[in-house]
TrEMBL record:
<dbReference type="Pfam" id="PF18157">
    <property type="entry name" value="MID_pPIWI_RE"/>
</dbReference>
<dbReference type="Pfam" id="PF13111">
    <property type="entry name" value="pPIWI_RE_X"/>
</dbReference>
<dbReference type="Pfam" id="PF13032">
    <property type="entry name" value="RNaseH_pPIWI_RE"/>
</dbReference>
<protein>
    <submittedName>
        <fullName>DUF3962 domain-containing protein</fullName>
    </submittedName>
</protein>
<feature type="domain" description="pPIWI-RE module N-terminal">
    <location>
        <begin position="9"/>
        <end position="414"/>
    </location>
</feature>
<dbReference type="InterPro" id="IPR025085">
    <property type="entry name" value="pPIWI_RE_X"/>
</dbReference>
<dbReference type="InterPro" id="IPR024996">
    <property type="entry name" value="RNaseH_pPIWI_RE"/>
</dbReference>
<feature type="compositionally biased region" description="Low complexity">
    <location>
        <begin position="681"/>
        <end position="694"/>
    </location>
</feature>
<dbReference type="InterPro" id="IPR040496">
    <property type="entry name" value="MID_pPIWI_RE"/>
</dbReference>
<feature type="domain" description="Prokaryotic pPIWI-RE MID">
    <location>
        <begin position="461"/>
        <end position="591"/>
    </location>
</feature>
<feature type="region of interest" description="Disordered">
    <location>
        <begin position="665"/>
        <end position="702"/>
    </location>
</feature>
<feature type="domain" description="pPIWI-RE RNaseH">
    <location>
        <begin position="603"/>
        <end position="908"/>
    </location>
</feature>
Amino acid sequence: MYHHIRVAAYEPDPLHGPWREEMKVLRLGEDLHAELAGMHAEAAKNSVHPHRLPVRRLNSLLQAMAPGVIATGRNAGADGRLPWLYAREAVPPDVLAPVVGAWAAGMHREDDDSEGADFEERLRSRDPAETVRLPHWETEPVDLAESVLSAGGTAEPAARLYSLLPEWIAFRLAARTFRTGGTTLHFRVESSGDGARLVSWPPQRYERRRQTWYYSACLTITVHTVPFAPRFRVHVSTQVRRWATRLDVRPHQLGGTTVLLDAPLPWPEGPDRGHRLMVNTLGYDRRSKELAWRWHSPAPLVPELDVVRNYPRPEALFSDPERWINGSGDVAAGIVYHPSIGPHEVGPGLMPRERADLDAWVEEGLRPLLTRVPDLTRVSRSNTPSLLPRSDAGRVPGVRDAQLALQRRAALTRALNGRPLEIDVFWQSPETRAALLAELPKLIGLPAGQQVPSADGETWQWQCEGVDIRVRARPAGHLADALPTTRAPGRLRDVRLAEAIEGRCGLVADRADPLLGGAGVVITEIAGKERFAAVPDSDPKHALRIAWARQGRLTQFVNSPDDTDSALEHRARWTWLDAFRQLGAISPPAHRVGAGIPGDLQYAALWLVRHTRKGPTRCPVHRLVAVRVRPGDGPGVIEGWDAERAEWVPYPKLLLLLSQAREPAASGGKETGTEKLVDDSAAPGGSRPAARPGVEQDRQRETERQIRALLFQLRDRPTLLLADAGNLRQCWPGLRNGALDRDTLGFGAEPAQRHTLYGHDLRVLLVRDANARGEVAEWYAHDTEDGVGFAEGVWGTADTEGRVFASTASKPHTVAKLPKGLMKLVPTAQGRTAPGKTAWNPGQLEITVLGCLSEKALTDSGRAGDPSDRPAEWATLAHQLRYHDDYPPLARPLPLHWARLAGEYVLPVAGTK
């Protein structure tokens, strides 16, 4: 058993002293910014923000083509006085002017480029009367460890460090080579909106099935904060970057895929030469009806700066990606692989040994400026709740399955509370129908002799110990067909989709039988979502969920056998298990934490559903979902909050109520896409387009009002409130790391108050995962003998007053076991097929005990002398809530898992009232 885990996170070393780097800084200046803004406003009259410069393409071009540029500042497109470029040394005007000139001319490419044609000459001008000359570089010391300490003790880095520091670190590491197993890897820098990446280049090769597959090591570098930590963190995560060598899609199916361009600098002088890959996006342009460079890609401008070399055109890259990844002349390009474009014989992920080797290389390269954060140690040996032992643990085969079946049937009996269960199965393949009918009685222990067949051969009925289930299986017919979609000029996309949904609702109403006092579930076999990808908005899944909810029935879907690789029996099993979850026939196992947890504790979980116009119904919505779990309370053990009626309702009823969300009728006008900021300068920790300030403030106030009302409804007994900080902080800013303070809750602009004001016995736990931005660091277990591997448990620092813990779960028993020392980047003779293996690593869940009954909290509440809480016990409880006999270890505690899944029913439809 491992007793320590190591996280791939680093912090400024306090023993090093001040960390200042002399950098060259360039600002656009008010005159040049005004000139460029005027050119953009003239060229983009229909832009949402005509006076905000679209500098993202220019920034990418400069980073790739101008030697020395390491980062670009934020919001320079909106304010010429802000820092625009950071560089190791000043970029000469002869280099900078052509790049800016090519970009400026590109703004007029589709219209009239006469205004941009002479812009480069004006930039080069030495005439003192010329107002658009390039500004002068300034030398500034930049503190790369600059931070402020929040009132709660959390170090928050200066805003510019979120982009500047990862780039600086990436270039420092790219100057070194990584040697392992007799192989040397060289790295290039790839800029990203939330940090920087290192990509090994040229790619590795793997021969399989008479074809060559390409892949690289990829390190992602990001800056983050940790609640109550006195120094900010730099996270370095490791992955396998796979490259596409063929695209099994048609051009019009390619929405947008990343392409990294490797091109030599037109100007050979300068630092950091050859260390960067240029980021572009290749996709199908529906206006021009052809493949094109999209989303601010700098690739279209490069040939104008370098007329000597041959650069790939979109259609040539699409038709023969392998040619370009191997290079044409001294230019190469790689299409980043995504499963939607076909299969790949290289498996994702790295095993712990290889991750540890890369982590050690990073640590060596960052000394003495950054130091590794301390290892975490176990805080509890109670890793799991009271689960049934597995059958292979010296037990008679089949005993565990029988016990699980009895548990499920008892839970279903409790949830139905005497009502019959009506199940409709709409199938497309006889195999799926047979698998579903065979799996149901096995899962809940219904004897075969209890089945009552029907004369029509479509209905099966079971009655056993208070459970009355009737299953009717019929062909799906047109119910599972793609939604009809039409493109009508001047009509909004969400309205057209709403009309298609209403049409499917009518078809469902015609086939629905009356539901007479029982609970209803509909299981529909549909094609995989890839089948509908060619025609946007044609997937019928969400329309069917809305339609059946109007008939009072819950819904579950199973993919056709031809559209999935998983075993049919396995998929049938999970279909039924999730149907039981929707019926509320499930409860958390008894915990094994100890006497410090109140016996009558209830769990409450909050989840915010956020859909933009790219959501499942093309209708934006923000809706708070709250779930309450009272173990041992009998029927209604899982409940949800009905905000309209201000009451707790059974979980199945909550799902049906959520499906009734409505949006006001859409106004007419020309169809436009999702509104985007032209500058694309993202705030730290996110890259979403900003909503109008008034709308965002209204959402925030309403969400916080609902949370306060919910807390009042939970005051009758000890409560553990669970919230996902990454999910909720957008509408509850008090959950930002910099706003947190121990044992307090903050709402709006009011000062934070002690959390016990919202509940005498309230505890508040926040969880956070990597959240697609590396917010929580990767990890691996290790011991004193250089062994590395996996470990499950709850981990923390030696600080007994610590409030932040790590929860790591075991690998699911269904995942194939691979040797922990498997090497994919440098395959050995014994493991020539290693690159083809999928390396699955459990993620770390960060648990912050924000509010508990600490000695100070008790004293402030007038309860000095009462036994105080141990934060580690509450973190252990949250960790144990990730386990259930029917599930592999979950990403979040069970109540949060159920609240998040309830969001699948939040499907507002435009044009209805």
